[in-house]
Prior knowledge:
Blueprint: H1 2-29, E1 37-48, E2 52-56, H2 58-61, E3 66-70, E4 75-79, E5 85-90, E6 93-97, E7 100-107, E8 109-116, E9 121-128, E10 131-141
Antiparallel strand pairs: 1-2, 1-3, 1-10, 3-4, 4-5, 6-7, 7-8, 8-9, 9-10
Amino acid sequence: MHSIQRMLKLSGIAIIICVWIGSYQAVAAGLDGSTPILCAFTTAAECDSREGCERTTVEDVDLPQFFKIDLSKNTITGMGPAGTAQKETKIMGTQRMDETIILQGVELRGWTIVVSQKTGKMVLTASGDDEAFVLFGVCLPF
């Protein structure tokens, strides 16, 4: 009796894992840039040549928590409360390499965003006169 219950329990766990992997792959597949991508910053760091880097918040860096990447329009749009569009910036360059999308542009500073199509993880780097910012986050198809 215990072996049947154990087998059923293991089968249930295996089914849950398969469903999770399938949904994860479906999300990653949507990060090919064919549809808009919604991203959220999770952590941020501010750096300068004198003091190095220290952790900060997205609010202190003066960026929206959420933003939409639309490769068909070559734009990135900050998203405010209730999904309202805020400031928009142009993507000046797009490259793809090893299941990553690499975006570049200029908005007060030069910036680069790298999005992993496989995991949805995202990193933004921006630099200017003796300062740099590194922000980490995640992206999903929108």
